[in-house]
Amino acid sequence: MTDYYTTLGVRQDAPTQEIKRAFRDKAKRLHPDIAGKEAEGEMRKLLTAYEVLSNRERRYEYDRAYHRFIKKVDFDYRSWLRERFEEPESRAKLVFYELLHLEEDAAVAVWDRSGGLDFPLDRYLDREDWMDCGYLLAEELDRRGRVYEAFELLIQLVREERRRPYFKHFMDDLEAFLKELVRLRLRSGVGDELWIDCLETLLELGFSPRDEARWMRSMAETLLKMGDKAAAETIIREALRRDPALPSAARLRQKLNV
To answer: CB count, 10 Å around CB of 54?
Structure first.
């Protein structure tokens, strides 16, 4: 049964230094100059395993999710779930199972066949399993360039975490992932109207004034581009109220005569 520890070739109680050594040794062997281009998939799995197990909070969350999940099985659980594919609950559990076992292609394929964002994983998984599954799935969708779908999954998780904490210390990583996705990748993957919808959603969640001001600045820029100068003026004023030192605001204010 494949897991992150097996991928790195370490014990489940291995200290961080041992995990780092194992990663370096395997990474050298999987380098394209040595193993060739066909090793790229294995290298990506190795990186994923290392990123999780070398981070104390992420390793804790992974261990909790993984052991809670496999403790239930002493038979071919994957086959058992696949035999019950017509049942939504089995498909939801299969998505999570495949993600935990680094079978990302299979997990995304099942999720897509089940309706993607319209498939309510939270209805068919326990709350903790759903949140862990949602995070792993968002990571994989982001890697595939499906940034809007990753964004929507992360928004669901942040909302639920605000309602009742589960990730706790790991929440910093969740928020950092969401903000990085928005800052670097989401804008190029959506149109103007959908971009504004995404920013409005972020503003409903209660982030820092500095973050909100920057999202409002982008919203104002987009509204101005769309020809809605009045709305852009209102938004940039509110952004400056949150952060008077907002970068690039002066140039936008000149355009708006604010």
So the answer is: 15
Contact yes or no for 157/122 (Cβ under 8 A):
no
Architecture of the structural domain at 191-258? Alpha Horseshoe (1.25)
Type of residue at 235: I
pTM, two decimal places:
0.74
Closest by CA position to 171, among listed 184, 180, 181, 158: 158
User: Do 68 and 128 form a contact (C-beta atoms < 8 A)?
Assistant: yes
DSSP assignment of 155-219 equals HHHHHHHHHS-SSGGGHHHHHHHHHHHIIIIIGGGS-HHHHHHHHHHHHTS---HHHHHHHHHHH
| Six-digit token string for 103 | 């079978």
CATH code of 1-54, in short, is 1.10.287.110
Tens of pLDDT, residue by residue over 31-89, are 665 666 667 778 888 888 888 898 887 888 788 777 666 555 556 788 989 999 999 99
